[in-house]
Each structure stands twice: as C-alpha cells, then as structure tokens.
Amino acid sequence: MTQSTDQLIMPPMPWRSVFLGSGAMTPSRIVTNVELETMMDTSDAWIQERTGIAQRAIAGPLETTASLGAEAARRALANASVSPDAIDLIICATATPDRTFPATAALIQADLGIPVAIAFDVQAVCSGFVYAMSVADAMLASGQAKTALVIGAETFSRILDWSDRTTAVLFGDGAGAMVLGAVASAQAGSRGVLAHALRADGRQADLLYVDGGPSQGGRIGKLKMQGQAVFRHAVGNISEAISACCEKAGVKVSDIDWFVPHQANRRILDGVARRMGLDDHKVVTTVHQHGNTSAASVPLAFEVARQDGRICDGDLVLLEAMGGGFTWGASLIRL
Ligand code: UT7
Asked: Most buried among 18, 44, 132, 329, using CB within 10 Å?
C-alpha cells in the first residue's frame, strides 16, 4: 500500500506551493518540571532524563486552541507581508478543537477577518501539521487556492489526566502557522514544497488515544498512552518516512539543511538521527522548552529556528512527525 502510493507518477502541476512566512504563539504561563513535582509523584531528574523536557507552556482560562492558532496565524501573515484578504484556504491541524464543530479553522478565519475562503480542520493528532501541509500543497498546486494558512494548534492540557504522571508531564500547549502561496511552476525555481510521505496504521489505535468523543461516551475524555509501545514504533516509522520523502524528491538525506521533527521525546530525536546518520546540529530540538505540543510542535520548532537565524531562505527543510492513529509522515520544502 505505502509502496504503491509512493510510486504514483503525478502529472506536472501548473503551480508550485512556496513558503511565504511563519509565526508561532505559546501561552505565557510556563510550568516547569519542578512545579510538577509539587503536583504529582515525579521529579525533574526523571522527566529530563527520560524525555528531555524541562518545561511546557499551559493555556490560561481565556486561551483556546482557536485563540492560540489565530495569534500564530496573525504573526505568520505579518512575517509573510500577506493581508488576511488574500487568504483563500485555511487548514488547522488539531486534535483539541474549541468545539466539536464548527472547525477551528473557521473560528480562526472569523477572528482574523478573512473573507469567504475554504476552511477546515485536519485530524491526524501529532502528525497533523505534516498532513495539513500535504493537503494545502495539493490544493495550491492544482489551482484550487492561491494563498493558504496552514496552522497547527493544540491545548493538550485540556485532555490530560493530571493524576496520571505517565502522560501529564509530557505535553504542552501552543500553535504555529505557515503561509504558503501558489507560484507558477516555471517561475518557482528550486523553491517550494517538494514532496510528502504520509502513513497511517489504524491497527495501533489503542496504543495512543483519548477515551471519549461525541459518538462514544459523549464526553471529551482523557489522553491514554502506552508510552513504551509507541516509542518502539517511532524511530523505525519516522526513519522510513524520511527516506521515502527524500526518494520522492530526488534528494539525499545529506542534502538536507534542517530537520524539524515532532518534539515528543529527545531520545526519539536522537534515535532517528543515529539511524539516519544525521548531523546532530542539523536537528532542531525544542522539546526541552515546549514539551510535546502535538500538531503544533513542528511549526513551533520551525519558528524557533527561523527566528534565531538558523533556517534561512534557500534552505532545504524536512518536517516529520508521528502520533496517535498511528499516523506519521514527512514533508520536504525548499524555502
Ligand atoms: O506524540 C506522540 C508520540 N508519543 C511518543 O512518541 C511518546 C513515546 N514514548 C515515550 O516517550 C516514553 O515511553 C515515555 C517518556 C512516555 C516513558 O519513558 P520510558 O523510558 O518508556 O519509561 P517507562 O514507561 O518504561 O517507565 C519507567 C518507570 C516506571 O516505573 P517502574 O515500573 O520501573 O517502577 C514508571 O512508573 O518510570 C516510571 N514513571 C515515572 N517516574 C517519574 C513513569 N512516568 C513517570 C514520571 N515520573 N512522570
């Protein structure tokens, strides 16, 4: 199945999606591991040693997935020098929407004053941003939209069981966004979104899930994870998707300037880097400051490295993630 979809020959598209700008937003409330020690039977030493996480941002009572996503999107539009009027596609990757419906993307659209546009959410949990990039890219490349906002926004603190130390210490809240624009392929040069490799395996659904939902139980539910089992799949799955994505784009892993991984666990990042032979200094790591922010983690990490001057115009950047479903995947973009 994965081999056959990867081998599909796509006809040349008239448009190429190019990166125009990015932004991020995290709540101001920082919860350190030391503060968690006062709430549950855990320790800063255990959390840092087993995950690399030192702190996470937690949404305040008035902050929601949509409000964080809207602020990240506003900052991305400013960075791209694109007016809200120019946006005709909004995709929000989230597993923690403000409401069951309407889509968080539509709430963000209203907040930003974006006129009538296409707006919908993508639910692929921690891989959501990579999935959303692929959908936005396909819609831009096929001429269905001209300028897209792709957002990853989450408030996982609202679905954590704060009495379960095996999950509560791992996650945080935040949002990141990118603006992508359609440029005639002939004029894009080497810039643009080059390839994606997406996968899902629903047979693993019970290893990482929320035990509630509108159609089952009628309540929001709380996150449940068999961490070790997820860990066992992570390095192999992510490494395979990176290789497939590079193969599709016709680039070598060693050509990539920056790897921007989903920030679940420092040991997973190190494991992928070892297996793929990556230079550690090319791997953007923010897990210590954000924890695991699910669909927000890749665009948040991207934004940290763009703002501090590491990721620059012309760089070849690989985004990758894995999460509940399981879902996983990679996207390659030349800025
Ligand atoms: O974003 C979606 C993808 N998610 C992931 O990729 C997460 C993948 N999994 C992981 O990152 C790791 O499996 C965890 C960080 C979740 C757990 O690390 P681990 O090294 O697999 O620990 P463990 O589950 O094997 O637990 C080891 C010990 C246990 O105690 P015993 O049974 O050895 O006495 C746990 O009860 O650590 C204990 N423990 C804790 N101790 C202090 C579990 N959580 C904590 C805690 N503080 N917060």
From this structure: 132
Give the domain-ending residue among 159, 188, 217: 188
Distances (CA, A) of 50 to 138, 159, 194, 266: 38, 22, 35, 8
Please tell me the distance from the alpha carbon of residue 315 to that of residue 19, in angstroms, as a whole number: 11
Q: pLDDT of the chain along its 335 residues, tens only?
A: 454 566 666 666 789 999 999 999 999 999 999 999 999 999 999 999 999 999 999 999 999 999 999 999 999 999 999 999 999 999 999 999 999 999 999 999 999 999 999 999 999 999 999 999 999 999 999 999 999 999 999 999 999 999 999 999 999 999 999 999 999 988 999 999 999 999 999 999 999 999 999 999 889 999 999 999 999 999 999 999 999 999 999 999 999 999 999 999 999 999 999 999 999 999 999 999 999 999 999 999 999 999 999 999 999 999 999 999 999 999 999 99
Tokens of 72: 């990240």
User: 215 and 142 in one domain?
Assistant: no
pTM of the model: 0.96
Name the DSSP letter for residue 330.
E
| Rounded Cα gap, residues 244 and 333, in angstroms | 14
| Cα 51 to middle of ligand 1, angstroms | 8
Instruction: Tell me the CA–centroid distance for residue 279 and ligand 1, in Å.
Output: 27
- Output the CA 48–ligand 1 centroid distance in Å: 11
Q: What is the CATH number of the domain that holds 136?
A: 3.40.47.10
Residue nearest to atom 20 of ligand 1 (CA): 50
- Ligand 1 is surrounded, with C-beta below 6 A, by 42, 46-47, 50-51, 126, 165-166, 169, 227-228, 230-231, 234, 264-265, 268, 292, 322-323
Q: Which of 188, 221, 236 lies at the terminal end of a domain, its last residue?
A: 188
From the alpha carbon of 51, which atom of ligand 1 is closest? 15
What distance lies between CA 127 and its chain's CA centroid?
6
Nearest CA to ligand 1 atom 23: 228
Distance (angstroms) between ligand 1 centre and the Cα of 156 equals 18
**In this structure, are 262 and 299 located in the same domain?**
yes
